Description:
Layout: E1 2-3, H1 5-15, E2 19-23, H2 27-40, E3 44-49, H3 58-71, E4 76-83, H4 86-95, E5 99-102, H5 109-125, E6 129-134, H6 162-169, E7 173-176, H7 193-202, E8 207-209, H8 217-226, E9 228-233, H9 235-251, H10 257-279
Parallel strand pairs: 1-4, 2-3, 2-9, 3-4, 4-5, 5-6, 6-7, 7-8, 8-9
Helix pairs in contact: 2-10, 4-5, 9-10
Amino acid sequence: MLSSLKEVINEGKEKNIAIGSFNTPNLECLIAVLNAAEQLNVPVIIAHAQCHENVAPLDKIGPVMLELAKRSRVKVCVHLDHGENFEYCKRAIDLGFTSVMIDYSNLSYVENVKGTKKVVEYAHLHNVDVEAELGALPQREGGENTTEIEDITKLYTKPELVCDFIDQTGIDALAIAFGTAHGIYKSKPILNMDIITKVRERTSLPLVMHGGSGISAEDYKEVIFRGINKINYYSYMAYAGYESAKSLTEQKHSDFFHNLALHAQNAMQENALKTLKIFSNME
């Protein structure tokens, strides 16, 4: 059933679990994630990232996401991930998305506040929840245009800014930076868990971890224990689909694309299922 961000987060809080937020830029991803969530009977967030506009335009994939969410047997929030400007967020809101993320984390603090507040004002007029980011990950969503950063700790969320940022913007969820990164990790991430604790001490607002793929089950459980309510996950699920399709093509000289797509979908569903079990304290 189509639900708000607040509704799925609140169910997660009641069950003492984190809610998985999965980017779903095509039908195979959508079916994989929703099947996994229904199998476990847990709420879930399906998301469209603006960087995937060239893969699946918002006005094409958005209505499909909304329809499948309405048909689902579990609570499903339809979310815009990493909206890069007001106009794109407005398009998602007008389509019927129940949640949007505006990402001005690459701007100055003042500009982040100003731009985020504008999105919040429009979204709340339409009963849509808003997530924003304070601090930044070392590479942008999708992993493109990365630059070498000598000291990534300079990108981490500053807990002392949290209350002011929330008060000025009126956001409904806060993404924080404490050592994760978008994309596939080249080395084991080192997470500063104390940042989560310090932020949680300052607010009861839902906290979000971006770059959620590729960390250990123990780290997932630790971040949830410390107060993370929503975990964004995509890269490793998508890679599982790629590996499955690649394996099939290596075994056969030729095949139909729909077979490749189904193999990828099944692999992604298995990956999503395993991930949601961890987020839901089922393993």
